[in-house]
Structure formats: structure tokens, C-alpha cells
Amino acid sequence: MSKPVVATASLAGCFGCHMSILDIDDRILKLIELVEFNKSPIDDIKTFTKQCDIGLIEGGCCNSENVENLKLFRKNCKILISVGECAIMGGLPAMRNGIPVKECLEEAYLKCPTVDDNIIPNDDELPMILDRVYPCHEIVKIDYFLPGCPPRADLIWEALVALLTGKELELPYEVVKFD
Amino acid sequence: MASLDAVVKQVVSKYGNDRTRLMDIITDVQTELGCVSDEAVAQIAKILDLSKVDVEGVITFYHFFTKTPRGKYTVYLNNSAVANMKGRAAIAKAFEDAVGCSFGRTTSDGLIGLYDTSCIGMNDQEPAAIINGVVFTNLTQEKVKEIVTGMKAGKDVKDLVKEYGDGANQSDLIRAMVKNNIMRKGPVLFAPYEQGSAIKAALSKKPEDVIEEIKIANLRGRGGAGFPTGMKWEFCRKAEGAKHYVICNADEGEPGTFKDRVILTELPHMLFEGMAIAGYAVGAQEGIIYLRAEYLYLKKYLEKVLEDLRAKNILGKNIAGKGFDFDIRIQMGAGAYVCGEESALIESAEGKRGEPRNRPPFPVQKGYLGYPTTVNNVETLCCAVRIMLEGGEWFAKMGTAQSKGTKLLSVSGDCQNPGIYEVEFGTTVNTLLEMVGGRTAKAVQVGGPSGTCISKKDFGRRICFDDLATGGSIIIIGPDRDLFEIVHNFMDFFVEESCGWCVPCRAGNVILKQKLEKIMSGKASTKDVQELEDWCKIVKATSRCGLGQTSPNPIYTTIQNFREMYEAKVKKDTDYVSTFDLLAAVEESCKAAGRIPKVEEH
Q: Do B588 and A140 touch (CB under 8 A)?
């Protein structure tokens, strides 16, 4: 039987959740035995080459490229998981949500003391900025949510193993407490 | 005009440089100066030896306090669900057209400000507004034009009131156009009584026996929660403290309730006598009535009633020659629903943000200024008067097993005769609908937004703590109403009124409202309804005080009782619907950058 295929992406996130995946330490060797990675920063595969079983999404959507990428993952993954605060609720990037996007752009590109060409970037190659940062589940259907900033390595590990083996997920308090 | 410093100094010294009177200080400074500016905040803080944040925190907490001018004339138009039913939208537009600015703003010349406000206790005569403390009811577009013309001509707001309501509303000290609308008088509140007879009867007994009589009556709090009054008084009496306090909760803020307004207008003597009885029972010499800011128009009148009672020796020193001293002061609120919660009310009366306290200790143990305090509803205290006169057994003969006596109901919405009804506990919703001319109702909101929305199948249920509990608010919803609009209005209210202290209530109510909007937009699946219900349970179970523990009820109880309404809105063939619109989401940023949005490839 072929191994289950996993893909991962970091949208409007900080890669902290991916770091947390690596925090499973030597279990990563066990993981490689259990699964095969497809599109992911971990193996640097840029495009989907086959249908995947599990997609792990870090970060919410702050621009059109995030949206496109997220929709691509939904299309190519049987199970899609929001990993971490940003994917689930927007996280730190969503701190701009109370401020009109025009003001944000002006502050960053026109009024900022360290810029001198005074232009809001407008090249068609650039992703378009969304009016606010959206959690992933507002754009596509998300099957599971792994909370944390970042979620602990143990939580990610347990969740993946549970999904792969069909066993029930064990969530001791230490793994999901955040205070 | 006197200088800012002089005004602030004079006001603060009027209240003895006492920081616990910050509510009054801010109110008076605002009355003098039109708003409480940064300079005024700094000055108040300096004199009271507080930080500026302490003062600013109080100002920004309350709806009627403001740091920026809201006009020489400030119009607060009620935006409750019943106001909407009665044509608020047209009235709001009439104001905007005549004044020349939109709601939430003040005209550029600083003359008139237009603002929304939560239920002002006039649901039986909506649309209604408060302008500089003066109440205007049953507004029509013509009336609005006249009022605005008057304001533009610089008239005194009081002179814009053309007609007066009935009863004491006509008295020189009130002169309000508010109508009492007393539709049904019952034996507890509206039977005749002789002023001073009840406190005399109480003073002829030992305080413990007064409490015993209240226990025999099985009197329960009329504010909605229904805590046994005798037990509360006993706890308070037994709690150790250098002094004790009685606070009357006259902050009826539950949308749709206005019964206390009528008691305060027609039966204030009875209420104050009830406070004195409570004072005697718990061992207090000081009473405070916490009056909601919306009822400011009754303040002068109530002060006169207090003077009368002192003159008659029903209040004051050595009451009825029995050696008992008791007096009452009025504490004004400033517009905050959460202050109806007793510990939040105490915080507010102490000049702080009206945020609920952790309990224990309960107010009966450590209440106002840390002293044992009993906080009782207006109607509860009036019931105590009647119990002193007629006896606990007489009282307990009325009502149901768990709810004795009568209940004053504030009925509004789609019925022929909105107003006040004193009915025996245990009256069925059907009987009430019959009484008020509301037989065509498709839904009845019992107990206000924080209560229960029931459908026809439950109209046989009884109004009492054993079945459908209510603090008095009954809103009748006719067959042609969009129930979603009403539920949405209630959620708007809770989002606005959440004090923000705890996350489940502060964030949860916003999430509930957004999820409701998703369903209302038709872009939702059955799963969204399930999630909405789950969120209701989370907010109810994890919020810190009664506000968040009940705020999901408009959604929660309509999902239970009107599930078909939700099901008709959702898509059945999918378990996920997104409301995301890429083109709309990128519009603003592309405009700012001078780009043409391209969304085809996404």
C-alpha cells in the first residue's frame, strides 16, 4: 500500500508553525516512514504532483495569492487542517483588521520615514491585498483545527498519527493549554 | 462662561472631593461644559488624585458620557426592536433630513447631535427619543419637524413638549409627555395604601420578624433572577460590617421593560417606604436608589418625594418615633445595561466602570464601599410594603408553588393595548395575549432579549419562575414580522452593551452576530446553524456574569422554537458555504494602489 501524502503551506503566517512541525525532533524520521510529502516548504516541492491526503495550512489569508493557494490546497487535499492561531483566527496579521486597508498602505508606503519613492506598489505581478485578514475557514471548508501559537509539536504529531492510524486523538491538558 | 478649571474645581468640591462620586462629578462637568475633554479629565484626575486613565475609563464606559461635544441639543433616538416595529426608520430619516446630519454625528455648527441609544424604557410609546434629558414619545415625522425647528430657533427643550401624559407625569416637577399606560391594576402594587402605615407596622416588629414575614410571603426578586428576598435580607443582616446599605436597583435596562418607570412615577412613596423597611430589616441607615440615566426626567420629582417623606417622618431621624434612622440618596447612572447586574451597579455607584465583580464575596457580604449591601428591585421593595400591611400569608395565597404574589408586566410590540399589567404569577401567555389584544402573535419574547422567545406551541405556558421567568418585559411579535430582524437587533444590543471584561462575552457576541448574519444572507449550510448553536452554548457556559450567560438566548431560543425559520434559509445540498467575495475584498487596496483588480485566475 502506498503511503499517505501530506502537503503543507504557510500563507499569512511566520513559519513558526512549520518550525513547530520540525520540533517533533527525531519523530520526523518516523513521520517519513509513515507519510510521503508533496507540495511543501519542507521538501521544497512547489506544485502539486498528485492528490494528497492531508493538507496542513499555516497562516490566514491577507492577499489574493493566499486565497488562490488555499483554494488549490482544498482542491488537492482530502483533509485540510488549519494549523495555529493565524490560520484559525487571523492571528497577529489580523491586528490590521480594525484599520482601513488604505490607511495601512499609506502608513507603510507613503508616510513611513524610511521610504523615499512614495508609491503604493501597484505592479500586476504582486498579489492584491485583501480588505482584512481572513481566517482560512471563511474562504474554504476546513476539516480540523489545531490551535496554538504555535501548536505544540506534540499536538501536531498526535493529530497526524491519529489521522493516519484512525485512532482517537489524545489531548492532555498540557498540550492544549495556552496560559 | 467660567473657566474649565473653575468649573471642575467647583463641581468636585460640591461632592466633597470624593472619588466614589465620580459618576456625579462627570455628569455635572459634562452638563456645564458640554463634554469632558482631555483637559477636564486631567483636572478631575489631579484634584481626586487619580490617574487620567481612571477617569477616562469611566467616561468611555458609559453611553451618555462623552469626551467630545455632542451638540447643544443631543438627540438620543431609541433603537430597540419595538422602536423599529413602530417605524423608527422613518423617524430617524426625518431627523436626519431636518437636522442635516446623519446619526452618530453632530452638526458642523455644534448645534444638534443625533445619536442612537439602547431601549429607554418607553416601549409602550415608541418611537421615542431623549433630547437633553427630556423624553419625546410617539414620535411622528411632523413632530420631528416641529422639534427640530424649535431646536434651531434655540428654544428650551422643555418648551418643545406640547402635551403631557397622565397622572404624575403632569406634575410641575415632571411635565413629561410620557403616558403611564396602566392597563391592569392588581392587589399588591396598585391597591390603595396609606403612606407610612407599612414602615410603622414593620417598626412594631423585631427586624428578624420582618425578615420572617418576607420569608412567609416567599417573596422573590422582581428584577428577573428571582432570588428569595427574605434570604437576601437575612444574609445581609447577619453579615458583619460597621454599617449596612440598601440599594434600590432602578436601572431597568432590559429592552422592553418599563414597569419601574411607572412605579417611580406613580408609587415612589411606596418604593421609598419599602427601602426603609429593608433598611430596618438588614440594619442599614443609608439607602441609595440607582436611577438609570434615561429616567433623569423623574429626578427632581423623586427628590421632592424624598423631602415630603422626611417631612412626614417616614424617612429621616427617629422614624415614627421608634428610634430608627434611615435616609435615601439618588445615584444617577449614565447609560449601561450591565449596571443592572447588582455588583456592576455597586461598582458604578462607587464611581467606577460598571464591570461586574467576582463573587464571592456577594454584595450581601461585601457590597457598596465594602459594607454588607442588599440590592433589590423597585417592584420587590414595593411588594415588601404590601406584605407588611397584609401579611406574608395573604401574599403567599396568590401565585404558583415557586412564585408568590403578582408580577408587573411591561407589554409592548404587536398588540392593541401596550402598557403595564399587574397579573397573578402563573398567568398563561395565552391569557395575557387575550388581555392585551395580541392574539395574532406568532412569537412572544418573554423576559426581554435575555429571556426566551416562544412560539405558539408554548403559549399555554405560565409566566412565573417555575416556568417562564421574566423581569417584566413581554414583547409581542405579530405574524408579519421578520423574526430574524428582531433577533439581529437583540444581538446588536448585546454587542453594544457587553462590558468587555471577559472574552466569551466580548468576542462571543460578535461571533454570534456575524454567524447570524451569514445565515440571514442565505449563504449558509445546516452546519452553520449547528455551529451557531454550539457557540451559544460556549458563550452561555463561559461568560463571567449574567449578561453573557443570557445574551445568546435570542439566537438559542429561536433555534429551538423556530428551527424551520433557520432551515428555510440554509442550503441543504452542501455542508459548507463561503461568503468570501474576492473582488469586493481587493477593491479598496487596488483603488489605493491605482490597480485594476484581476480576479479571473483566482
A: no
Cell digits of residue B363: 454584595
CATH of residue B468's domain is: 3.10.20.600
Q: Which residue of A has its CA nearest to B584?
A: A131
B67-85 per-position pLDDT tens digit: 999 999 999 999 999 999 9
Q: Say what the pTM is.
A: 0.92
Residue at B207 is within a domain = yes
- Interface check for A129 against chain B (CB to CB < 8 A): the answer is yes
Preceding omega of B360 cis (within 30 degrees of 0): yes
Nearest to A122 among B586, B595, B598 (CB): B595
| Alpha-carbon span A59 to A13, nearest angstrom | 4
Last residue of a domain, one of B424, B454, B477: B477
Task: Return the CATH number at B84.
Answer: 3.40.30.10
Residue B422 belongs to some domain of the structure: yes
Nearest to B527 by CA among B464, B477, B576: B576
Measure CA of the first residue to CA of the last residue in chain A; give whole Å: 42
Q: Which residues, 6+ apart, have CB-to-CB distance to B489 below 8 Å?
A: B79, B80, B81, B84
pLDDT digits (tens, 9 = 90+) for B189-238: 999 999 999 999 999 999 999 999 999 999 999 998 899 999 999 999 99
Q: pLDDT tens digits, residue range A52-100?
A: 999 999 999 999 999 999 999 999 999 999 999 999 999 999 999 999 9
Do B16 and B57 fall within a single domain? yes
Whether the CB of B156 is below 8 Å from some CB of chain A: the reply is: no
Nearest to B582 among A64, A121, A122 (CB): A64
B585 touches chain A (CB under 8 A): yes
Are B301 and B269 in a shared domain? Answer: yes
- Does B579 contact chain A (CB < 8 Å)? yes
Residues B217 and B299 in one domain: yes
The CATH number of whichever domain residue B293 belongs to comes to 3.40.50.11540
ipTM of the prediction = 0.92
B532: phi > 0 → left, psi -120 to 50 → alpha, else beta; which?
alpha
Q: What's the distance, CA B513 to chain centroid?
A: 21
The verdict on residue B598 lying in a domain is no
Distance from CA of B576 to the nearest CA of A (A): 6
Pairwise CB contact (< 8 Å): B592 & A139: no
Number of domains in chain B: 5
* Cβ–Cβ gap B589/A122 under 8 Å: no
Domain stop point among B128, B162, B196: B162
Spell out which residues of chain B touch residue A130, defining contact as CB-CB under 8 Å: 585-586, 589
Residue B501: CATH number of its domain: 1.20.1440.230
For every residue of B209-268, DSSP letters joined together read HHHHHHHHHT-B-TTTT--BHHHHHHHHHHS--S--EEEEEE---STT--HHHHHHHH-H
Domain that holds residue B39: 4-61
Residue A145 has what DSSP assignment? Answer: E
Residue in chain B closest to A143 (alpha carbons) equals B576
Q: Give yes or no: residues B278 and B372 share one domain.
A: yes
Cα distance from B357 to chain A (closest Cα, Å)? 22
Residue B558 domain flag: yes
Residues of B in contact with A124 (CB under 8 A): 595, 598
Contact B576 A141 (CB under 8 A): yes
